[in-house]
Amino acid sequence: MTVWFPAAILLEVSPKPDKSHKKTRAPRIRVPNNERAIFIVDESKFVGVIQRLSLTGGSAVLAKGPIPRGIMGKLILNTVFGKVTAQIEFLQTGADGTPLAPAFRFLAMDADSSRRFSAAASQMEEEGFSDAPPPASGKAPLSQLLQSVRRLAASLSSTRS
Q1: How many angstroms separate the CA atoms of 31 and 68, rounded?
Q2: Rounded mean pLDDT of the chain?
Q3: Apex 145 CA angle, 143 and 146, nearest 5
Q4: Contact, 94 vs 72, CB < 8 A?
Q5: How many CB atoms lie within 10 A of CB 149?
Q6: pLDDT > 90? residue 93
């Protein structure tokens, strides 16, 4: 007679991820003044109005309409620091609650474009267009305060009309 003994199977369990190294999202910047950029997809050029930017990508309302997720393209954006050219991938549409605004991520950018883009993003952050929390000193920059006052004044004037 054969006796069967239950065999214990030990599975290697991967440890839980360390939440202290949680990946933080790059601050998003509201782009002022309806800044336009040229988008190129399959050698077809069209204009888009940039809505938001971050160091990793952004969103825009495109004249062509929505672009399917996963399509690769090129972005040409003029900044006060010079022209920025980047290879991009379109992501989901409906970014920032706008149905015709696809999100995109940067895939590649040459060194000059990267330097110009970083300088432009830093300047917009300093002017209070970023969603990043204010500096630890607790003092909001004057430009951020002015922007808040302008938004308040605009909302008050639109409710009186």
Answers
A1: 23
A2: 76
A3: 65
A4: no
A5: 10
A6: no
More confident residue, 87 or 3: 87
State which CATH number among 3.40.640.10, 2.140.10.10, 2.40.10.220, 3.10.270.10 fits the domain covering 26-126: 2.40.10.220
How far apart, in whole angstroms, are the C-alpha atoms of residue 14 and residue 9? 16
Are residues 63 and 93 in contact, defined by beta-carbon separation less than 8 angstroms? no
145: phi then psi, degrees, rounded to nearest 5:
-65, -45
Q: Classify residue 15 by burial, with Cβ atoms within 10 Å: 0-12, 13-18, 19+.
A: exposed
Q: Shortest CA distance to 111 belongs to which of 101, 103, 119?
A: 119
The pTM assigned to this predicted structure is 0.65
Residue 136 has pLDDT above 90, yes or no: no
pLDDT for residue 31 = 80
Instruction: Give residue 57's region: left, alpha or beta (phi > 0; psi -120 to 50).
Output: left
